[in-house]
Amino acid sequence: MNNWLIFDRMVSPSPSSAVGGQTPGTARPAPRAGSATALVAVLAALTAVAPLATDMYVPGFPAMGDALGASSSSVQLTMTAFLAGLVAGQLLIGPVSDGLGRRRLLLAGSAGFALFSLVCAVAPNAEVLTAARFLQGVAGAAGMVLARAVLTDRFHGAELPRRFALLSQIMGVAPIAAPVLGGAVLAVSTWRAVFVVLAALGVLLLLAVGKAVPESLPPERRHSGGVKSTFRAMGGLLGRRVFMGYVLVVAFASAALFAYIGGSSFVFENLHGVSPTVYSLIFAANAVGMLIAGAVFAKLAGRVALNTLLTVGVGLVLLGALGQVLVVPVAGEVLAGTWAALFVTTAGIGLVFPSGMTIAQGLGRGAPGAASALVGGLQFLFGAAASPLVGLFGEHSSLPMGLIMLGAAGAAALSLVGLARPWQRHGEPEASAASGS
């Protein structure tokens, strides 16, 4: 552990000059190139684990219901439980890490994820599986929330948004890769093997964290006063209009994305009559749009204001969702029109996520874990709430999906203009002293 502490002192700012853990606007020494590459690679893997665990077992739902003697709603409840654990875990672990540090919680989270994945693999009934999935979600949340906090601890200036762009791209790719990977496992084994694979991934992450992720928050930069103080810091962030404005922009954009994920298979396969294979290609093409947008963001970060990139992203989300709503009354259920509108929307989200997260983490730099918890927790909370709405409001048109996405995009735009006020350039690296009041 002494070696980790020496490393932390080499790369962390002097505590005597820090306010809330970091003096705004001051640069910090970066990790060595090799160390930084390994660190970011492990953090990216930690970010991917929750989306993988969410969707990998979806192809096995029918067989799972048969094996456990459970109804389809009971099987679907296991996913809801995981998402609930993911939200609760981020809201708990993030602020606690500001007082206890990141590394121990990352190790515990990775170990817990492996353990509860094994419990899922041997679950005798749907009730045990649901409880294990909730705990798996809580443990998996550690990787997501602490990856953002560690990046905020380690990197500064134009380097930070480029790192966040990578995490956002991982978030875009993982949900697409997950069902494919799950299908490959199911081709040679049963649904229980999916959870064995996730357990093995948890063990690999545990080893990787032990090897490549040193403590990024040394004792002198931690919040004093125990757990109560760390949650008080979260309460302080909740009361900051500008900070919450950026958090809500990301959360509502996530709601638009989850509405698309929840409704797009029905729209393309049932309404437009495409095969599951063609739908997968359409879904992948839209994900490529997100990846391209993330790459553009990473290229422009440091040259173009983050608030400008965020505003463009929100504008694209709003434009794409509006196009999806208008295409039906104007041209009917046209495949090309729907696809084009959704491509624009997902590309916009590819700009919103890294820019919004970077600005929010910068404004919450005094308590990065609490800030990350609010960003990630509300992102998945709003997303999980939006996902089932498409089926609830009708399955005979693509309008419900479009209207829900448009409502979420409109709320994101109102949060941006009414709360964040991007023209005031809050959270920019060169203007990070903005109060965010």
TrEMBL record:
The keyword Transport is annotated on this UniProt entry: yes
Top-rank taxon: Bacteria
PROSITE patterns: MFS, SUGAR_TRANSPORT_1
Transmembrane segments: 36-54, 74-93, 105-124, 130-151, 163-187, 193-213, 242-266, 278-297, 304-327, 339-360, 372-393, 399-420
InterPro entries recorded: Efflux_drug-R_Bcr/CmlA (IPR004812), MFS (IPR011701), MFS_dom (IPR020846), MFS_trans_sf (IPR036259), Sugar_transporter_CS (IPR005829)
Membrane topology category: Multi-pass membrane protein
Principal cellular location given in the protein's record: membrane
Keywords annotated in UniProt: Cell membrane, Membrane, Transmembrane, Transmembrane helix, Transport
Domain called Major facilitator superfamily (MFS) profile: residue spans: 39-425
Subcellular location: Cell membrane
Gene3D superfamilies, A to Z: Multidrug resistance protein D
Family statement: Belongs to the major facilitator superfamily. Bcr/CmlA family.
Protein name as it appears in the record: Multidrug effflux MFS transporter
The species this protein was found in: Streptomyces glaucus
